[in-house]
Amino acid sequence: MKKYFVPTMMVLLTATTCSFAQKESNKNIPITNWLQTNPASIQLPAFHSSQNINGKNYELQHLLQENQLEINSIRPSEQEHLKWNKESLQWSKTSTNKKGFVSSKVAANKLLFYVAYFSTDEWLQAKLNMETYPMLEVYINGEKKISHYESAVDKAKEISETLKLEPGKHCILVKVISGEKNNDFKLSITPTENWTESNFTFSISPEQNTTIHKVLDGVNVQNIELASDGKLALLSFSRTLPPSDNTENWKEIQEVASGKTLYTFRGSQLANIQWLPTGNRISYTKEYNEKTSLYIFDFTIGNETEIATNIADFSNYNWTPDGKQIIYSVSKDYSEEWKIRKFQGMEDRLPWFRTRSFLYKLDVASGIKQRLTYGSITTSLQAISPDSKHILFSQSRPDYETYPYEKQNLYQMNLETFQVDTIWSDKLFGGLAQYSPNGSQLLVQAGPSCFGTLGENIGKQTLANNYDGQLYIYDIKSQKADPITINFDPSVSRAIWNKNDNNIYLLANDKDYIRLFQYQPTSKEFNTLPIDSDVVGSFSLSENGKNIAYTACSISTPYKAFVYELAANTSSIIAHPQEKNLTHVKFGKTEDWNFTKEDGKTIMGRVYYPPNFDSSKKYPVIVNYYAGTSPVERSYGGRYPLNLYAAMGYVVYLLQPSGAIGFGQEFSAEHQNNWGITTANEIIEGTKQFLKSHSFADADRVGCIGASYGGFMTMLLQTRTDIFAAAISHAGISDITSYWGEGYWGYSYSVNASGKSFPWNNRKLYIDQSPLFNADKITTPLLLIHGSVDTNVPLGESIQMYQALKLLGKDVDFVQVKNQDHHIKNYTQRILWNNTIFAYFAKHLKKQPQWWNDLYPDKNL
User: Fold this and answer.
1) Does residue 676 fall inside a structural domain?
2) Is residue 706 part of a domain?
3) Where do the Peptidase S9 prolyl oligopeptidase catalytic domain residues begin and end (predicted)?
4) N or C: which end of the chain has fewer CB within 10 A?
5) How far apart are CA 369 and CA 49, in angstroms?
6) What does the pLDDT average to over 602-628?
7) Residues 469, 492: contact at Cβ < 8 Å?
8) Position 687 in a domain
9) Which pLDDT tens digit goes with each residue over 85-133?
10) Residues 793/734, Cβ–Cβ less than 8 Å
11) What angle do CA 313, 319, 325 make, to 5 degrees?
């Protein structure tokens, strides 16, 4: 089968010389309809007739060259207004005259803007042709392509430029300075090679499908924290700064009721900003001479107070509930410069292994700092008691003799006497603990095996998947635990015990949703909070326990910040920074599609349709999965923004195979000692059923893609089926044995993927189920992509599969992303990485190799 793929309408138009032989006989396509503004008044600066330091005069053309507006942000629609100083310029429709020129009769030395849009259904090359009398500049998607700075009188000036156009919608903007006589210009496009007029669609509407830039660019809200009374919110924001790879991060304080921004910390050097447990006060840190000072700022009186100074190796801090003390951590790296050394254990190869962290106490009133913990093992703060008299802290250490090869001790310390009591020791599956409102119990967040089999509900499975988050209420005096989520299928990722109403609020994976739940200890009931979003990203509780702050998104809606009033059970939006960025973006339909296996098990999935979907047509299909222990949530964006794939003309089928958390413990436990056999069969069966059930899905053009464990699945699938026309593996595992031994998380991840199985006692799993040992069975074209410094799944996992397939004469390509780890985070490389995926699927699923050939031309090496 063939496969197809073209996700984002990213528009990077590169004005370079065409590498293909251009066929000048191709039809010239005129742009006939435009949006035009009223003429804008422009003024020459004072002393424009004098010369500058280089002996040059200020010319009229300089008013054209100086961008008074942010060109990238201009995407108007008809009747919209453009603010120009005190004027309001309206965008109105205009058309070319009989000679194909845009004509405007205005007084000289006025500035006019023209905009038109065109869409391309595939990557292509074209010539942009301009005939002009006035001075003007032409921009494509914010990038200057043509400039002309001399007014022509008798004959129009002819200029052309070569464009490389990615699939999607493109904006042409023309800036004109009117002349004394003729202000006419003509713009057209000539496709090269075998492209024709049918590959272009022209309009004056800014409506577009989503693009990679719509996913990556703009301001994003990351987190929200409430002041003690819930009336003020501290929001964290970030934004990319294209075309650079830099990112700006900052915080703001908003008034919840009005939404007004009261303070911004944009550009400040403050760090570790957080609310105090009482009053409208924040604390933060500053760095001086590589040491840390702590400050408090009181918004009521507008006063800053320094409460600690000269702390070396400062890491993080927490306030005690009474606001009188701070518990902070100091971390120090004990690594030494070396040319040769002996490892002191398996983890010693990890760069952070020799870093140790210990706890200190700061008495705010006196400024006294006291060390709380010492030793050779890191101590981690877990909780502070409601009465501010005790803390919980833990220590974890490797134990290579006992599964799961790590043990945890949990201690309680009296902050006045420094007396330490052991809560538990040598716990094989440790957890995170916090105090109940009265301090007599602990809320423990851990895996199903934290208290032996007490919290396990795995049915016929042998070992639990301890990535499946559970909650326990642990009585400190009796040392007994109650597994409150044993019959609760969602997997818990965070929980808070509210001192105001004594209920527990938790964030949990509920299949492919991430929801907020309430647990009532008295009735032992779970309730879903009525939040109209698919995925909650983060949440926090105000100190008074009356409000929850959270961020959330949905499939076609980016993250927003909300405040939820517990008494009223209502949410209000605090921040929606991406609203303007997505004003004209159109998304396709998304719907659930599940199938039932022969054994009666239901495998959930969903389908993403292209915008303007037509069921009478045939579409190429992209099959996506993770297949590891986490479901692919219904979030916006992400590593694989599936809306983007659909926007490029694909039907996208995503499924959630066995082994994922959020479906119940028995379901997640199927991840153990399986390594893809069950999940591969489910992906194959689901794909076949999907193709059979949907007549618009082209069974000859189906591609598949996955990353990490999903990259492993991509490789494994090709050893077991030929239903795919193209396959892409990002950071995939080709040999389970080498990943187990070399990846930073290899053997520790295997605790939940191949518990108690090793290369020497389970060759069937480690060898027979490794794609590398079945490479000769692969017939599908395969693209391997890998970050060159991936520490999770080492680069060698792709190298060895590439070498195997090359020696076998298979259709394989290998692309490395320089200096990127397991995730591609660098802005420009993320775009190139996405383009690589899009171009590969276009080549194999749409029979459009030009984009791929332009990105990766064959070299005579």
Assistant:
1) yes
2) yes
3) 643-847
4) C
5) 67
6) 96
7) yes
8) yes
9) 888 999 999 999 999 999 988 888 899 999 999 999 999 999 999 999 9
10) no
11) 85
